[in-house]
Amino acid sequence: MMATPPDDITELRATAEFVRTQDTAALLPHLLPDLDEAERQALAAHCGLAHAALLVFPPDDAALRAALAACDLPADTPSFPSVVVRHRLAARHGRAEADLDVRILHPRVTGPDGEPRTVEVCALTVPPGSELAGLAAHERAHRHEAHVALEVEQPNALLLHGLRALLTRHGAAPDGGGYNPHENGTVLYFTLPAAQAGYRRVELHAHGNYPGVLADHLADGGAHRSAETLLHLLTGAWTTQALAVSARLGLPDALDTATATDPRTLARSLGAHQESLTTLLRYLTMLGAVTEHPDGYRLTELGTLLRADTPGSMRALALMYGGPFYQSFAALDHTVRTGEAAFDHLFGENHFDHFARDPELAATFDQSMAAGARMFEPVPAHPVVLAAAGAPRPGTVVDIAGGNGELLGRLLTAHPGLHGVLLERPHAVEAARRRLDALGCGDRADYVTGDFADVPAGADVYVLSRVLHDWDDARCAEILRHCARAMPAHADLLILERVLPADGSTSLATAWDLHMMCNTGGRERRADHYARLLADAGLQLLDQSPLPLGGAVLHARRAAAAVPHPAAAPEARLPA
Length: 576
Ligand SMILES: C[S@@+](CC[C@H](N)C(=O)[O-])C[C@H]1O[C@@H](n2cnc3c(N)ncnc32)[C@H](O)[C@@H]1O
Description:
Blueprint: H1 6-21, H2 24-31, H3 37-46, E1 47-56, H4 61-70, E2 79-81, H5 84-93, E3 102-105, E4 108-110, E5 116-124, H6 133-142, E6 147-152, H7 157-169, E7 173-180, E8 185-196, E9 199-207, H8 211-234, H9 236-249, H10 251-254, H11 263-270, H12 274-287, E10 290-293, E11 296-299, H13 301-304, H14 315-321, H15 324-329, H16 332-338, H17 342-347, H18 351-356, H19 359-370, H20 383-390, E12 396-400, H21 406-414, E13 419-424, H22 426-439, E14 445-449, E15 456-457, E16 461-465, H23 473-486, E17 492-497, E18 499-500, H24 508-519, E19 525-526, H25 527-536, E20 539-547, E21 551-558, E22 572-573
Parallel strand pairs: 1-5, 6-9, 12-13, 12-16, 13-14, 15-22, 16-17, 18-19
Antiparallel strand pairs: 1-6, 2-3, 3-5, 4-5, 7-8, 8-9, 10-11, 17-21, 20-21
Helix pairs in contact: 2-3, 9-12, 9-14, 11-12, 14-19, 21-22
The chain binds S-adenosylmethionine.
S-adenosylmethionine (SAM) binds next to helix 21.
């Protein structure tokens, strides 16, 4: 039989023990440390501990029942589907509610004076190998659903208003609630400023319906949540820097996911100030990059992405967003006032020129682009690529401004007959050559060191990946004219970009639109905008398909009656 994870059984046993032994009067000053004696007595006279709640992740129902029995809880306790916890989990993790099988059970226990209590067991089924394992690890680390519930004895509206006022005066923030007609009960949730007695959330439960109290509670909660949301947004810069500094220090590389490292050892190995490092680690714990344990800190799955040696590492992105692009964002107001890229204003030159003069920065930028390469995963299977690869004489793909060869490498690796040409600036050509050689497809690649004007003619597929968004419309039109001029009548052009949604809904493209404006003077565009730019260059947008990370691939060809632009330069030929 499959078993509930040992960490969950430990937590269940501890919660059951807490409910069995905890005296309400002794618990209250732990939850609200500033209560004076009169307040504590008044609260204890009106409220009693009813349950403590936890979320566990059994592989199936039988394993959950066995876990209950192992903790001396009735294994035959009925379960019912959760609505609230399931909704909260789905919202927190961006999941469909239908994917989350959350059930609730209330196994009965008795308190120290024989009073009836329960343990509220919320159980999300996570079978072995399930992709919900990451969600479970996050929830175990953060205990968002853990709470204690106080039953209000002989409730009335006046008493509930008074209890609400008392709790909020002591820093407990209203955090939602509701009326359940099936059990004729009103629930008011509060969040404490910090975990007390192991709990951050408190529930007040009262028998009966108190619509006025509930309305006030929900309204206060709304205002509180807005303020908290705004604080999170305003401190986004701290998050960027905490992650970037960790990456720069090599902190994720010095930690492990399986065994903990104590801050002293870590500070010594990183050459850091121990107390400051511990503060940073606590913040990283809040962000979910590390977890805290009695013997130190462990890296999480998310934190692992900041290691240098992880496949798909995002370390270079952290260094860029916490480095030059962080500095330029501090001058965003210049861009908004003048329309000029803040980066150029701050550094005195275009970011490509700036990076090109600093080999280390240029390499970090290329690696940061590669960190978003998950977007490329479906491209080798694009019909245009399949057609070129499957032709009797396999075709040639030209990757224009192909960076360090990440995409071309994937195309050539997936299709051993394809030939590739990479057009880039000198430093990137060298990086691409090394990459394609390492992938074992360097012998099927040629390199053109040059400018957009040097797009070689005569190939079958042309690719512009994350290039057009770097430039304003005039420069894009020029680049597309160079492509159109080089493309034979049968050739296809694939444009990879984040495309702004036509219906105005937000997407990752909305965020990168701001980033491009601030740092490159470019922008993200809607598909109809690309269609117009293409048409001006004598090309026709044929279709569009989605890519991971909010990307899309736009497919274009020469318009049937395309007339070469008069400004077009003489053709560059494919390398011999
Ligand atoms: C945002 S990166 C995209 C790289 C790659 N296509 C990708 O998707 O990862 C833009 C690339 O344009 C190249 N680039 C900038 N100006 C260029 C020019 N005038 N001619 C050719 N390439 C240029 C840069 O070197 C950089 O690698």
